[in-house]
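pinned: reference chain
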Amino acid sequence: MGHVVFDASGSRMAWTLIEQLQGGVYKKIGYYDSTKDNLSWYNNDKWIGGAPPADYTKVITTFRFLSQKLFISVSVLASLGILLAIICLAFNIYNGHVRYIQNSQPYLNNMTAVGCTLALAAVFPLGLDGYHIGPGLFPFVCQARLWLLGLGFSLAYGSMFTKIWWVHTVFTKKEDKKEKRKTLEPWKLYATVGLLVGLDVVTLIIWQIVDPLHRTIEEFTKEEPKTDTDVSILPQLEHCSSTKMNTWLGIFYGFKGLLLLLGIFLAYETKSVSTEKINDHRAVGMAIYNVAVLCLITAPVTMILSSQQDAAFAFASLAVVFSSYITLVVLFVPKMRRLITRGEWQSEQQDTMKTGSSTNNNEEEKSRLLEKENRELEKIIAEKEERVSELRQQLQDRQQLRSRRRSSNPSREADNHFAPGLGATPAPPAPFYQPNLPLVRCLVSEQADKLGRGNCDGSRVHLLYK
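pinned: its structure tokens
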């Protein structure tokens, strides 16, 4: 007999034998001394699967990441769209001197191209998650998504909305007011776009200061794998959120939604208006229709599908991509086609060279035209002087001829100048040519061919004097 020991609760304290059934036979695999809290293990235990069974259900946390195939496909489309926007922007800037491009308000179209570029660039941060970046960089990605989408929409849609608003303001008023407001002042258009962008910037700044976006984790229902009953999987999804996310989204979406609805109304009201000052307002109206429909459908759908990362990304990114593509194609492709097929940019350049409208060649062209006109005038003056000399020579010849005829016929002249029965001596006849009287050249030149040598009598001498 040995010592028998009990603990404070009345339980016997002794060595505990640990056995395992192996091959139908119990084998000792260890002892436990409860008095000294000592475990003696023989390491001859055997387990199915090579490890002892778990005494509790192990929970494994896994994140749901975006499909990489979907992300790469949409990123390629966005990259091609950015390239298209850059081409459209370069085309508009290069052909800014063409009258057809000038009448479409090219600066507003440039803003549209830049806005589409920013919106397309937002596709890349939309697809970034924990698969690509760590938790520390996630807030910066959230900021990039918000700012790129907000500014891109304000620039692209704001410039189109400004065009259609101006057309509606001018051409749907009464005739007396229409004439007063028909003058297009570009600074007002730019100021309107600046106001829309400024409102977005102020809203985003206040949002980020008061309630900044940060990384949040959404947990889903635990999933039991079929292969292991002792393990459960807890899916998690990363989101960009803030404390009052719904309030900020309501303000943001409410303002944008009103602009979209108002743009649709203005585009419908001006569909039959024709103006040369904004010659692409019908294309702008078509772009507004498409953008408004896509945005009004996509915004609520993405909020509903926020827990499904692939579907939410597909709806949001493809809406941005298709809206940008439609806007760029509708606004810029018809202009490219017209200039290429009709060659209007070449005719504009040729007219500029011919008329001297270019700033660099203006003075040179004027000087060349003046020199040419001067040479023509000198030629005309020389011809006139030669003609005057000829007429003077003809006049002198006629005067000499008449003098000889008078000297050869004195009796005839005496009969003509002395009346019979009068004793007075008549006054001598006035000479034919008097230097103090002005010579009328035009009369001489017109009458010289009509006066023949046999008709040079005194009755026609007065035609030579004024």
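why pinned: The first helix runs from residue 68 to 94. Confidence is low (pLDDT under 50) at residues 346-360, 417-466.
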